[in-house]
Design a protein that fits this description.
Keywords: Chloroplast, Glycosyltransferase, Plastid, Transferase. This protein is an alpha/beta fold. The protein has a single domain, classed as 3-Layer(aba) Sandwich (Rossmann fold). Helix content is 40%, strand content 28%. The strands form 2 sheets. It has a 6-stranded parallel sheet with strand order 1-8-7-6-4-5, with helices on both faces. It has a two-stranded antiparallel ribbon with strand order 2-3.
Length: 193
């Protein structure tokens, strides 16, 4: 089985990610906003497959009011290093108010365990979204391995969302976790952005 890679090709996301990849940090203010909106739209594209709405009908005196709300039984968790992805996840609560955001350093299993244990939530039946600006090293494997082996999370409940991802990292993810779903705007070859 091969890795499920979803290359997000929405024109607005492609324009924003092209600007980011060609920008040389001359205008930091604009650069941060482009990351912010690219991340917001990328996360939106990732989440829309998993968010389930419930229809509520409220009978009024002369009519019926129809509301769509998030199912409170569904749980969502974003795992990210907030110091690296703050601009990306800033507005995510406006899409999914009940989503939890876990600040996590996944360089080693001890940090991963401590971060997840401090959160004090059950990961059973939780949709987990790992969010990164640029995935270009093997540290992501530590987090996925911990979630799969220690917390017994099915790979069908784990998604990696990254604006840019290195092809070598994708190869390693594909060989170790072929069922994993990866969402990205651009695959980077030879560490060039």
């Amino acid at each position: 089985m091969s890795l499920n890679i979803y290359h997000i090709s929405h024109p607005i996301i492609q324009i924003l990610s092209t600007y980011i990849s060609n920008q040389r940090n001359n205008d930091k203010f604009s650069y941060e906003y482009y990351y912010r909106y690219t991340g917001f739209l990328l996360i939106y594209e990732t989440l829309r497959k998993y968010i389930k709405l419930e229809a509520i009908y409220i009978k009024q005196l002369y009519s019926v009011k129809n509301l769509n709300v998030l199912n409170p039984k569904n749980k969502y968790l974003i795992c990210t290093n907030i110091s690296q992805t703050y601009h990306i996840i800033t507005d995510i609560k406006s899409i999914v108010p009940n989503i939890k955001i876990l600040n996590i350093n996944y360089k080693d299993n001890k940090n991963i365990k401590n971060s997840i244990d401090e959160m004090k939530i059950s990961l059973k039946d939780t949709k987990i979204f790992i969010v990164e600006k640029k995935t270009n090293d093997e540290n992501i494997l530590n987090l996925i391995q911990y979630l799969k082996d220690e917390k017994h999370i099915s790979l069908s409940n784990i998604n990696l969302t990254s604006i840019f991802i290195n092809h070598q990292t994708l190869n390693k993810l594909g060989s170790k976790y072929p069922e994993l779903k990866v969402y990205t705007t651009k695959i980077i070859y030879n560490n060039k952005k």
